[in-house]
Amino acid sequence: MFLTLFDFAGTFVFALSGATAGVRRRLDLFGVLVLSFAAAAAGGILRDVLIGALPPVAIRDWAYPVIAGVAALIVFFRYPLIERLKHPVQLFDAAGLALFAVLGTQKALMFGMNPLAAAMLGVLSGIGGGMVRDIMLAGIPTVLRAEVYAVAALAGAAIVVAGELLAVPPHISMIAGGLLCFVLRVLAIRHNWQIAIAAPPSETDDGPRA
Amino acid sequence: MFLTLFDFAGTFVFALSGATAGVRRRLDLFGVLVLSFAAAAAGGILRDVLIGALPPVAIRDWAYPVIAGVAALIVFFRYPLIERLKHPVQLFDAAGLALFAVLGTQKALMFGMNPLAAAMLGVLSGIGGGMVRDIMLAGIPTVLRAEVYAVAALAGAAIVVAGELLAVPPHISMIAGGLLCFVLRVLAIRHNWQIAIAAPPSETDDGPRA
Amino acid sequence: MFLTLFDFAGTFVFALSGATAGVRRRLDLFGVLVLSFAAAAAGGILRDVLIGALPPVAIRDWAYPVIAGVAALIVFFRYPLIERLKHPVQLFDAAGLALFAVLGTQKALMFGMNPLAAAMLGVLSGIGGGMVRDIMLAGIPTVLRAEVYAVAALAGAAIVVAGELLAVPPHISMIAGGLLCFVLRVLAIRHNWQIAIAAPPSETDDGPRA
What we know:
By secondary structure, chain A is mostly helical. Helices cover about 75% and strands about 0% of the residues of chain A.
């Protein structure tokens, strides 16, 4: 019950992020609705497809598209409001990331995935929506670029996996993992943490394979 | 039988659209074949993956790749011909959209999706091919931008869903929904209808989440 | 056993290609890891999703992400080394393509796909990773553009399908198909073979459908 509320809150803030990106790129109302749902649900949908949990919960349960639709309408018709809310939205986004990463990992474990796969699928649950949003807008996913975003999700997922291996009750490890992810992400925003980028290569063109 | 013929016609015109986009971007013959099949089949494939109808019918039935392949070869070797046919192709495309949207919705209902999910999957069946085509060409899907395209698909899908809820025989609501979608799309082309775009935001950069 | 070794080698070189592309676009370490795994595993994952073999083997078996991760770390921390190895990497890549195409076709046949679908899925197994890698980097997949890459995969897949239809023992046709694909690809690199591009169209803009 509590988890479901958080899940809906995460869906809502991820949908806000998708709708905001769509309005900035001057999509029409339909495009904003699509991007909103994609940002909110694509991570979980990809996870569910990969573990074979079909149809994905975000398709099966009408609450997800409705929540995403409400977020899209708010952003579309009240864009200045959202601009002003940037700071709280970042906090919600961090909370959504934490929750999706932890819930996704746990679901993958329940479907019999090995620990490494479960952690990867947890991260995918958390960051997949943002990746699909950016690819739809013909950009390189921001999550792949110099930001402690996925790493926070990975830390949370790792805690859940470790808890499973050590037979810790799931709700304990999920709370611990979620908190770790959330705190890491908030600290990263506050202190502008970056993770390593490789030394500049000799050439910068993008040739074919290897 | 009649439906199958329309399905093949829709596949053919969507394949033409993919192949045309590929030739314009100077892809090689193989690339044109891939884009042709993607534009024709990706909507249905995504729908089938999401409802768990695996393998997707467009993979299982050899008619779809064969039809898409023929369309690709025609466009590749007779490009000027296709250019001249622009007007009829737009009509066929509207017919394909109508049919895919309506058939996709009905199939999703038969697989037990709720009404909202069925309508979304119907729209995805209709517009998914064009979206994948555009993403493969590194562009923002045109369907997300200021055109009454997806909305026509949604109107058709909504009729099918409403028919299901009111226990109207499926073939009646499918014909009604398909006609509505087709007429809306043709009127939108003729009168250059656009749907709303949000007021220009204060900044135009695409920052990270939210 | 022998096949598994080749499969791992193919995974490794495809992962190298993804990681190299990521470093060139200045992704952070996490982004390089993601791109590395996507390039190595996306082809097989897409194939497994489409034939309904869920969860995909690249998710289920921890060896694939581990191999891709090792490749990513090598590229990230030893980029100049990889630059120097370009020639051997191209050979490995050709070997990986051959193996993935042939194995993918055979797996699709075993899952009851028709010959055309099996060949398409074999090609997808071989080229899907590179396509997803390029789409994630917001580019048009190089494999769709003027290079005898997918065609080599198709030739290999066709041999496997023909062998199935003629009741040749699978390992014979797989070896023959794999060799054909490998030799074609290496010759194409050496002699800079290109396949046909359609005559330049009258206009070069990318309009909407058709």
